[in-house]
Amino acid sequence: MTFYELVQNSLRDSLGTSIPAFAPELLLCATIVMLLLGRMFSGGRSNLAYVIMMVGCLAAFVVAWRTDAPEKPVEIFTGMLVHDSFALFMRRLLLLFVILFTSFTRLSGTPDRQTATEFYTLILGATLGMCLMVSANHMLIVFLGIEMASVPSYALVGVIKERRVSAEAALKFAVFGGGAAGVMLYGISLLVGTLGTAHLPTMSVRLAELLGSSAGSEYHPILVLAGLMIMVGFAFKLSAVPFHFWTPDVFEGATAEVAAFLSIASKAAALALLLRVTLGLGHVPSTLDTPTTVPVRYAVSEDAGTATAESASVSGLVTDSNAALLPARQYSAWLIALFAAVTCTFGNLAAYGQDNMKRLLAYSTIAHAGYMLMPVAAAILLAGTDPEASRFTVAAIGFYIAVYLFMNLGAFALVAFLRNELGSEQLPDYAGLARRSPGFVICAAVVMFSLVGLPPLAGFAAKFAIFAQTYEAGLLSLVVIGVLNTLFSLFYYLRVVKTMVLDPEPEGRPAPTIRIWSNAGFYCALIAVLLVALGVFWNPLFAEAQFAASMLLP
Amino acid sequence: MSFLSFLSQPVSLSHYLIVGAVLFVCGIVCMATKRNAIGVLMGVELVLNGAAVNFVAFSSPFLRADSQLSLGLDGHLITLFIIVLAAAEAAVALAIALCYYNTHATIDVDEGDELKG
What we know:
The complex is a heterodimer of chains A (554) and B (117).
Chain A: H1 3-21, H2 23-42, H3 48-66, E1 74-76, E2 81-83, H4 85-108, H5 116-134, H6 139-157, H7 164-195, H8 200-212, H9 220-238, H10 246-253, H11 256-281, H12 295-302, H13 307-315, H14 318-324, H15 326-350, H16 357-385, H17 387-422, H18 433-436, H19 438-452, H20 458-472, H21 476-501, H22 519-536, H23 539-549
Antiparallel strand pairs in A: 1-2
Helix pairs in contact in A: 2-3, 2-5, 3-4, 4-5, 4-11, 4-17, 4-23, 5-6, 5-11, 6-7, 6-11, 7-9, 7-10, 8-14, 9-15, 10-16, 11-16, 11-17, 15-16, 15-21, 16-17, 16-20, 16-21, 17-19, 17-20, 17-22, 17-23, 19-21, 19-22, 20-21, 20-22
Chain B: H1 2-8, H2 13-33, H3 37-59, H4 73-104
């Protein structure tokens, strides 16, 4: 092959396949550059940063919306990323979240004009990392995505420089986050080195060979250790017990806006990445759709036995390979199930005594991470026996993530708007709000009941779907733990509503009124209406999630 | 005695992995015991470098009897990315440490006890 052909091929692949599929992310990159350039001209006096951010995010969302899902998963950028319906669904969700989040920050006024550029740049940088996470197909992108999402988050937590607690929270987050990422990277190095490749589908083929052969047993300890270390990194990102300790501190130290971003976007992306890695390693794809137009990567490996040739020889034996992967699936599923049970129990129990709303929501986030991990374990177990049921489970997770996005955004928006009115984030200060702002309190009640999972709200449909699929996988004990936890959680969510409605107003408090027809009230009402609507008409969103999951486990 | 025989063997993959593991363990111990924030960050760097040594060793086709299992260029690329990421993370973490110093007049991580996890 001549050099000319090489350039031709890689150009055709980049411009024809990869770049169009990657356009939303490129638009985000362009928005970052525009934000920084805009700062030079406006000098932080006008709303330019907000306008650029909103336009850029809307453009990226529209492009992602108009991108059609391919017929089957397509590997782009020489196998680094995969473009399929699941990645598309998650990226649309993330971009929709960033749009809602930007309008929320505008209403609550928290990055002021001076800091808006930095704030939005960091948000976009983290979002870019999350978009990489949800479409990762290579262990390098797995780690790179996690770090790209984490490093701007550390800075976001400390974005208000004068506050003592902010600095402390940011330092704790950076130190723990760096440590967890280091342990995860070491685990990845062991796993990748043992399997001899970092490309996820090829890794599953090699893992099946290793576990299937009799000589492979000497590698078992190192694989178990590597799996454990990688799980440490995921548990940190998902704030699963015992790697949850940063969550309440960081949420309390950061502003409510940043806490909302960390609690929603970062959890959603980490969960999607966990699904990609565990399902990718626990299932041998029947057809490795390697782009034939890209010889660069595969020409190198041709001397050393190509990945494609290997997979072709294996594809007839996929069933055997999938049987050989049973120990890997069971190991990861039980590990995740254990994390899920401990996490949601601990999160709910610790939420009781909290008076600070942001700490309460932090423990609520931990508990929800536990609920969301349960169907992940179920999906892994089902992947070997019944891929169709496994895809349905992933659809339930996707639906839960979408509903969780609205619920938690609503909860943090309430905290931020009340902080602006009351100057406090303590629950006792919310007493008697219902007398002056009844509409606002109704929205708050809807959000809280949805977080519990009461019918007919969206939280119920989402929770029902994931518990049903966990039961389907035979994890009855997990379902029992989940239902009991839902009962526990009723009390502390109800306590918030009770304080707002029944408790008498404290003496001498400035009378806060958030009218439902003000901008802030309207924003909360919009989210509350969405939660009710999704609880009744959940079909379209669920169908979308089912389509998203339909291309997993090829 | 097995350790001494290990020393007399020709250099193989496991020798590099031992260097990586020692770096990793030093980093973890450093993170767990240091009270100075800069010391903790140095521990993080050691952990990352331990992983980087592993990747470089795994990507060499000469160190493995079965050269099919070497990572090749992927390993080198990952190592380059680790170096860049470690620098980015250190820059952000040091900026945060400076911010912490400005508000607390110390970088002792134990002094940060206003938030109770």
